Amino acid sequence: MKKLNFISLSILFLITLNSCKIGRFVYYNFADINDYKIFPERKVKTGPSTFHFATTDNGKAPKTLFFNNDSVPLGDFLEKNNTVAFLIIKNDTIHYENYWHTYDETSIVPSFSMAKSITSILIGCAIDDHLIKSIKEPVTNYIPELKKNGFEKVTIEHLLQMTSGIDFNESYTNPFGDAATFYYGINLRNATSKIKLKTDPGNYFEYVSGEKTFCCINARARDFAKIGRLYLNKGRWNGKQIVSEDWVRQSTKIDTSGGSAWNYQYQWWLPSKTGDFMAAGILGQYIYVNPEKDLIIVRLGKYRGKTDWEELFKNIGEAF
User: Which residue(s) pair with 299 in the sheet?
Assistant: First the structure.
């Protein structure tokens, strides 16, 4: 038995040595909101002038919510459901801001898949700057090494809409899966070049994380709220058009053509058919925007849990 255990451990050790991503998966296990501490980073420098949301002592955020057939104090509910930061902003004014579990307004949290929505913004900027001609272009115009895998028929739009037909294992618990390779691996370019197709593009929507550069934007809750503000203001930032209004409109409208899902557009989620939209990441990271109410909600947390956060955001919007 001792010999068998020794052999098993030896094999595991060899596998770990030969695969950094498996070793990292075994050591760090599931994704965590402290993961920004273990990966290399590149800091984004602030500009010459910075924007700050206004604050008020007379916030109009609801103190209690009727949710899940029960009336619950907002703060107690959020803390109980593993929230570390929660902001409600209306008309550029913070009406509610609270932090739990040792977090505060200076705490950094990874975006996880909210980075998809930010990548979408950057695609829009690249089109505005004529760095990309059109989302109808094949991705092989920019990543020619994918030609060997048949990607000439996959367009940038297919990737934005999650209709590319990529063969990608989205499992977050499989150390040998694609998600682990992309998250814990050390050569993303090499991993990308090995992606294959399992079906022709443009047939149906399938959420796969391999369709964007892989995680994360690490920022504070107020920073994430500024992403929402940019889109709330149709791509304008204090008088300057950062990304075209047309791109913002295209990114947040319902479109089911080409196999697209009505509730997902250009890497943004559409929680309802009333004009609201949001960025979302694993463990329950959200930037929710309700243009009709001029409302931005940011929720950052340790776990998503069983809470229907989209419904909670809509309930808060109705309170305004």
Answer: 86, 286
